[in-house]
Design a protein that fits this description.
It is a single chain. The protein is of the alpha+beta class. The chain folds into three domains: about 110 residues, no CATH class; about 70 residues, no CATH class; about 250 residues, Orthogonal Bundle (Fic-like fold). The strands form three sheets. The protein has a six-stranded mixed sheet. A three-stranded antiparallel sheet has the order 1-3-2, with helices on one face. Strands 10-11 form a two-stranded antiparallel sheet. Strand 2 and strand 3 form a beta hairpin. Helix 10 packs antiparallel against helix 16, helix 14 crosses helix 15 and helix 15 runs antiparallel to helix 16. The chain starts with 7 loop residues before the first strand and ends in a 16-residue tail after the last helix.
């Protein structure tokens, strides 16, 4: 195909040019009025990559509307909805165009490709709240629950004030479009979301949660789904804990605290860390870091505390906050025991917004309760707290505390994540968080648990020597974690 000749040609280019190309066998007809210079590719593929220019040539000035405007693409069945000067259904290769008679572009509608217009958001929401027949293939309007979820997501990302601004603009558009009934529906949904009207008419779970004052992050639910399915479908081993005797509780708790803080960048020589915990020797230059290790140790060395697990969502939130208050009790600037007030980030990951923390944690508890006690609940708890990141600081440490409490409650070996496994552990969390791939996280957790169960913590020096033989203190990438048991 000649790069100087467009792939799509409209009859408006002139009869002479069309005849010339036709005589040279360089043209074929796709649709009345639309030709292509591509003589090889499937017509549906040609139309697909030139869809909007083709629509613009066929229906100049049409407005992409209804579900097409809200979804930003043709439906799964290849239907495109356009508001135009008349009503008709037009078949193109690979697509169905449904023309709906209605008002042309308003001042708020946006110019789009090929001389088309894109319906503004206020107009789009009104259009999708029109009375609509549910056909076997496609309807012009998305289900009301989907509309509610989109409004809830807008409140999440832009703030609830944006809903008020949308409503004000929709009120004006409704007059021009003669959609007063549709505006009443939109006004009712927004009012319910903002808590100024009853929520009884809301259909979406996310919308009802916001109306109740417990909005949650919808984007995290697919991640919870993926991990839940992985854990339910896996035959997870029940790795029993060694019997505790004498110093084993304190020694294991020390190494758990040491490794958990090391992952987060609180790095001490093992001898210095031992003196901090067992001799209360606080380095003058790093008192806060020292107290972070001590705070972790206070929780994980408390055998009664580490067998408590939540039953109800309210118990979960209270337990999480209480443990965090101990963990960071010496750092008032970090808000110990209080959920964050500002968004927190790590690299390319933005965690759950402050106003969605409580609702997302409670939503996660619904998945947690559907899992068997033991490793499944422990791994899910680890990811839930880590992914929500409910606190300004200490999220990784508190997530591992919550995980190990689940294991201790079930009489199973805890999970210590040694230095050598740090990168594998963090990459596994990122794989689930960013790509919805849970398998590596489950694999790393079980590997770390087998390693932990192989260590006898009853004698400190013997445990330290065993950890060294397993390469637990090696930098990531320099050695492989060994499991000797």
């Amino acid at each position: 195909m000649d790069p100087d000749i467009p792939e799509i040609i409209h009859t408006k280019v002139g009869r002479a040019a069309l005849k010339r190309l036709g005589r040279a066998h360089r043209l074929r007809k796709l649709f009345p009025g639309i030709y292509t210079t591509n003589l090889k590719d499937d017509p549906a593929a040609i139309v697909s990559r030139n869809l909007y220019p083709v629509l613009g040539k066929l229906f100049p000035g049409a407005v992409l509307s209804h579900r097409t405007a809200l979804e930003g693409k043709p439906s799964e069945h290849g239907t495109v909805f356009l508001t135009y000067g008349y009503t008709r259904t037009v078949k193109l290769p690979g697509f169905t165009v449904r023309l709906l008679r209605g008002r042309g572009a308003l001042a708020d509608d946006m110019p789009f490709v090929g001389g088309l217009f894109m319906s503004s958001l206020p107009r789009t929401f009104l259009e999708n709240l029109q009375p609509c027949r549910r056909r076997a293939n496609d309807a012009k309007c998305l289900p009301r629950g989907v509309v509610e979820e989109r409004l809830d997501r807008m409140a999440q990302t832009r703030g609830e004030g944006e809903l008020n601004r949308l409503r004000d603009r929709a009120r004006e558009a409704a007059v021009e479009l003669a959609m007063t009934q549709e505006f009443e529906r939109l006004d009712g949904i927004i009012s319910a979301l903002l808590g100024t009207r009853p929520r009884d008419g809301l259909q979406s779970a996310a919308a009802r949660a916001r109306a109740l004052g417990l909005p949650y992050d919808q984007n995290r639910l697919p991640l919870f789904d993926a991990l839940f399915a992985e854990l339910r479908g896996a035959d997870l081993p029940l790795i029993k804990a060694l019997p505790d005797s004498g110093r084993s509780v304190a020694n294991r708790a020390f190494f758990e605290s040491y490794f958990s803080n090391f992952i987060e960048g609180t790095e001490f020589d093992i001898v210095v860390a031992h003196d901090i915990v067992f001799a209360n020797l606080i380095p003058v230059t790093r008192p806060r870091d020292a107290h972070d290790i001590i705070g972790t140790f206070r929780i994980v060395s408390n055998t009664e505390e580490m067998t408590r697990v939540p039953g109800m969502p309210s118990e979960f939130l209270a337990l999480l906050k209480a443990r965090h208050a101990v963990l960071l009790g010496s750092r008032p600037e970090a808000g110990p025991g209080e959920f964050k007030q500002e968004v927190n980030r790590a690299g390319q990951t933005t965690f759950v917004a402050p106003e969605l923390v409580r609702g997302t944690l409670e939503k996660g508890m619904e998945y947690y309760q559907g899992l068997e006690p033991g490793p499944a609940r422990a791994i899910f708890m680890l990811f839930l707290v880590s992914e929500v990141h409910p606190f300004a600081d200490g999220n990784g440490r508190i997530a591992r505390v919550m995980m190990n409490a689940e294991l201790a409650h079930a009489g199973l070996s805890r999970i210590l994540v040694p230095i050598v496994l740090r990168d594998d552990y963090l990459q596994a969390l990122r794989a689930l968080s960013r790509m919805s791939v849970p398998a590596s996280m489950v694999r790393v957790a079980l590997h770390a648990q087998r390693f932990t169960a192989s260590i006898d913590f009853s004698d400190y020096d013997s445990a330290l020597a065993a950890l060294q033989r397993c390469h637990a203190f090696a930098e990531p990438g320099t050695a492989r974690l060994l499991v000797t048991g």
